[in-house]
Amino acid sequence: MKKHILQRTLSKLLIYTVLTLVFIVAIFPVLYTLLGSFKGNMELLTEGNRLFPRKFVLDNYKQAWQIANFSQYTLNSLFMSGSIVLGTIISCTIAGYVFERGHFKGKNLIFTLVVSSMFVSLGSLTLYPVFMIAKFFGINKSLWGVIIIRVFGLNVTNLFIARAYIRTISYEIDESAMLDGCSFFQIYHTMILPLLKPLVATIAILEFRHSWNDYLMPLVFTLSNPKRMPLIVGIMELKSSGEAATSWNLMLAGSSIALIPMIVVYLIFNRNFIEGLTAGSVKG
């Protein structure tokens, strides 16, 4: 009995030790950014290994907000990220519904080909052809180009999660709606979509995180129109905007400001996040 209790204690101790280490590794960059944003630039350059600032400099936030026009950049980011999240929720839930409930030839083959693209990552190599296509349609000089490409590019991970979640919804709901005279897409709008709250929360968090932190594509699409730059791109403007050649204090202050919306979105949707992410992973 004592041996069993000792094994359980050691097991719990090991688990909590590993979780604590993972937590420290995950939280350290955020903590360093937040505390570093209160340091002077000289202190960051000479004592970068020191976590806590010797003196809290609140003026970093004021300078970052004014110099980099953060009010406009924040509005641009909210517009871009909000539009992408809303468009992605609509496109992915509809696509997931069609692939799960629809009946047409080649459905499984098409879905397999779409999902297989998840394992082909070309990164920035696709940026030039995507930009040229956007230029052909005249959407290469604003955030609308980024929004349209992100929404209609159809994030495969979100599609996969959406189909798995819709599979857990009883098909009897569809049959009841059919008896009431609902069409295929009326069933989606009136019956299925209201049941997708956890899924919507999951897609919202994943897509907001991705679009809010996206740098390369928004940079390319707004080079000729700096007023349309999102916040993450604007933060890089802070690097050479201070008195020193590299103003790390202003960059860290700007990065700390950019963290706030992401944290707020997670706090709003976190209750449904895990449920939507794991739905369909276990068959009942």
Give the total of beta strands.
0
In the CATH hierarchy, the third-tier topology is known as MetI-like fold
Judging by the overall fold, what is the CATH architecture?
Orthogonal Bundle
Percentage of helical residues? over 70%
Q: pLDDT below 50 for ≥5 consecutive residues: which ranges?
A: none
Kindly estimate the percentage of residues that lie in beta strands according to DSSP: under 5%
The top-level CATH class is Mainly Alpha
Counting structural domains, the number is 1
Helix run count: 14
> What is the radius of gyration?
24 Å
N- and C-termini, Cα separation: 36 Å
Mean pLDDT across residues: 82
CATH superfamily membership: MetI-like
The major pleated sheet works out as: none
Order of helices and strands: HHHHHHHHHHHHHH
Which geometry do the CA atoms define? globular
Class computed from helices, strands and strand pairing: mainly alpha
What does this molecule look like?
This protein has 284 residues and is mainly α. The chain has one domain (69-283): Orthogonal Bundle (MetI-like fold). Helices cover 72% and strands 0% of the residues. It has 14 helices and no strands. The chain has helices spanning 2-36, 41-46, 59-67, 70-101, 107-116, 127-137, 143-152, 156-167, 172-179, 184-192, 197-213, 216-222, 231-237, 248-278. It is globular, with a radius of gyration of 24 Å. The model has no long low-confidence stretch (mean pLDDT 82).
